[in-house]
Amino acid sequence: MVAVGIDACRGGWVAVAWTPGEPARAAVLGQLEELTHAFPDARGVGIDIPIGLPTDGRRAADLAARGQLGPRRNSVFFTPIRAALEAPTHAEATAISAERTGHGISQQAYRLGPKILEADAWAASTHLDVWEVHPELSFALLLGHPATAPKKTWSGDAERRRALLGVGIELGDFDGGELAAADDVLDAAAAAWSTDRLLRGDGRSYPDPPERDPATGRAVAIWA
């Protein structure tokens, strides 16, 4: 079973495909719909982006994941409502979000809006099994505790690489260049590890059981 992990990056999306006992493969995709061309043998996908947008308030998934991550909790941002992501400016998005949820929307979350909306639409249309994952939660399970250093530091990079090597994920000489930073690739690899667990029935959801999207019936959770 070929498991794929995906993380957003400067060039679009970086994807890592992996099956235990085999070399990992990686590619940068301009759009998510390119995935089946890059990895036609893919069986399931874990993607580090919200799948299932709230209409008001906070998602239980974000709260549950943050509760597991201790010092890394702030790596999980609160998923904005759809109306805020569709607003033409950050100022308008903040006003809409504040009115409907009591909270604003960060610049980072607003800038991710096009990717969040792309992923939400793609997940609903693809034939692949798709799970929302969060790499810091995946690394916490791999390490047995939340990562001790931020991912963009030397220590954090080394810690995460060791964790991946420990389960047999080695990316060789793959270089995303200016399109995908090293931490993007490591995050996608951790997402692939969680996807493999989920394909084998060994993963779990946060929260457990998941919430349900009232509009689509889709399970809304962060999986690992």
Mind explaining what this structure looks like?
- The model has no long low-confidence stretch (mean pLDDT 95).
- A hairpin with a 6-residue loop joins strand 2 and strand 3.
- The two termini are 17 Å apart.
- The protein has nine helices and seven strands.
- By secondary structure, it is α/β, with parallel strands linked by helices.
- It has a five-stranded mixed beta sheet. The chain has a two-stranded antiparallel ribbon with strand order 6-7.
- The longest helix has 18 residues, at 182-199.
- Helix 7 (135-143) packs across helix 9 and helix 8 (154-166) runs parallel beside helix 9 (182-199).
- The radius of gyration is 17 Å and the shape is globular.
- It is 39% helix and 20% strand.
- It has helices at residues 35-38, 60-68, 82-85, 90-101, 107-111, 113-125, 135-143, 154-166, 182-199; strands at residues 2-9, 12-18, 25-29, 42-48, 129-132, 205-212, 219-223.
Order of helices and strands: EEEHEHHHHHEHHHEE
Biggest β-sheet strands, sense, barrel: 5 strands, mixed
Strand line-up of the largest beta sheet: 3-2-1-4-5
The portion of residues assigned to helices is 25-40%
- List segments where confidence is low: pLDDT < 50 over at least 5 consecutive residues: none
**Mean pLDDT across all residues, rounded?**
95
Task: Quote the distance from N terminus to C terminus.
Answer: 17 Å
